[in-house]
Design goal:
single chain; alpha+beta; Herpes Virus-1; 3 domains; 4-stranded antiparallel β-sheet; 3 helices; 16 strands; about 30% strand; binds zinc ion; zinc
């Protein structure tokens, strides 16, 4: 492990001990949002507690183009406060647990990392138009992997084509945290030593 610098330690409301920023950690499951992470983590070594860079620093409230009607509230439910009803991310359709953003009147939920997805991306195989992150529309078959699309997607409305969020890899404007997560999907789909998160399992049919 790399030498730690105390100046990089933070006190986060989800954990009793200070967390220290560590680069090059390898794979981990974030104890905030309970999704896979790779590389940079805010870590408590004593407890083997990890937070994504973004989960350690994301704000208590957020205005997002994904849900322009209302400000989203950051919520955190610890393992002792699990809900009976499973909540799913409105963007990627995976379950949200622990740390996430919520809109109470609309029952809208989103992973912290999913809020980092850019509204528009350049997709190299489709250079003429920007693709826009959309709730529905265009086509339900991914232009890249030909798999079915069941959640939000990047679409070109003009050309009526859609691409999975994780199949858009070519954009330099994609947020680093999000890119990290999607790049991390690659070794997992080929049976790495890491614990397979929920995320990959549900999308497994795309790779068959
Ligand atoms: Zn996280
Ligand atoms: Zn600790
Ligand atoms: Zn999500
Ligand atoms: Zn709302
Ligand atoms: Zn795809
Ligand atoms: Zn187009």
């Amino acid at each position: 492990m790399k030498e730690m610098s105390l100046s990089m330690a933070i006190q986060h409301f989800t954990h009793i001990h200070p967390l220290t920023k560590v680069d090059g950690q390898g794979g981990f499951i974030c104890n905030g949002c309970n999704t896979y992470g790779f590389g940079t983590t805010y870590r408590c070594v004593t407890c083997d507690y990890d937070l994504h860079d973004h989960c350690a620093t994301c704000p208590p409230t957020l205005l997002s183009f994904m849900h322009p009607q209302h400000e989203l509230q950051r919520v955190f439910r610890g393992p002792d406060q699990r809900q009976l009803k499973e909540h799913r991310c409105d963007i990627c359709d995976e379950s949200v647990e622990g740390l996430y953003y919520h809109c109470e009147p609309c029952d809208f939920d989103v992973h912290p990392l999913c809020t980092q997805l850019p509204q528009q991306v350049r997709h190299v195989p489709h250079p003429d138009h920007q693709l826009e992150l959309s709730h529905s529309g265009a086509s339900n078959t991914c232009e890249v992997c030909r798999g079915a699309i069941r959640s939000w997607r990047y679409k070109c409305g003009l050309c009526r084509l859609s691409v999975h969020m994780e199949c858009v890899k070519s954009s330099a404007s994609t947020g680093a945290a999000t890119q990290q997560r999607y790049i991390a999907l690659q070794p997992q789909s080929h049976h790495s030593q890491y614990n397979q998160p929920h995320y990959t399992q549900l999308h497994h049919s795309q790779y068959n």
